[in-house]
Structures are given as C-alpha cells and as structure tokens.
Amino acid sequence: MNRIYNCINIILGLMLFASCSTEDTPDSSDDLALYYVKYEVTFKTKHVNTEKIIRFKTENGKERISFTEWKSSISWEGTYGPVDKNFRPFISCVVPDYKYASEIHARIYISREKEPFVIKAEGDGEYSLSLETKIDF
C-alpha cells in the first residue's frame, strides 16, 4: 500500500513539475532589448535662404545639423541606434533670426529590435519646436 502512495506522489510531483514552464517566470529580456530612434522634421519658410537648425540626441550624444540651402521647404529624417531602454530621445528645431512666420513639424519614432517604428512624440511650431519622449515598451 505504501508503494502505491509513493508511486502516486511521484507521478503527481512529476505532473506538477512538468506543468511549469519558462513562460511563468519573469522575462528580463525587455531590459536587454535594443531600440532604434527615428527623427523626422519638415521646415517651411517664406524665404529661401533662411537658416534652419536641428539638435537631437543619438547613441553617440548630442548632434546638430544646420541647413542653409536655397529652398523654402526642407525635409530631413535620420535613424539612430541601437540604444537601450533608458535612452531619452529629444529633438529641437529652430529658425533663428527669422521675423516671418514659419512652419515646423517634427516626429520621434521608436522601434524595438526589428519591430515596426511607432510614433512616440509629434508636434508643430512656428519659430521653434522641442520634443522629448521616453522608451516605455
């Protein structure tokens, strides 16, 4: 009779152990995931020779781009990374020393590993615009 109870206990123990999987344990791979940041900016000004400045953050630190092309409309985009989950993307756009109305539109996108990019921040401004976001997925 003891043998039967021992066999039943062993079988029940194996069934209980087998029903546990690694999916039941917290996954720390989210902390190790790599992310990519894409910035997108469009400037529209009344005059063609107006300077347009973009400042933004990459995996290498702060960057600055200046446009003085003879165009009244300029579009720019750049993708950077990989970065970790603690990275705080930001972009600042300005048309300095410009007395006329201008249009600035900017977006910040985030992608995790090889997933599609998702818009995390978007805004419009006349003379300047700043956007910042965090990685929360």
Q: How is the largest sheet built, in terms of strand order?
A: 4-1-6-7
Instruction: Kindly report how far apart the N and C termini lie.
Output: 55 Å
Which regions have little confidence, pLDDT < 50, spanning 5+ residues? Answer: none
DSSP strand tally: 8
- Spatial shape: elongated
In which range does the helix fraction lie? 10-25%
> How would you sum up the major sheet?
4 strands, antiparallel
What is the radius of gyration computed over CA atoms, rounded to a whole number of angstroms?
26 Å
Q: How many H/I helices? A: 2
Order of helices and strands: HHEEEEEEEE
Strand content: over 45%
| Average pLDDT level | 85
Broad structural category: alpha+beta
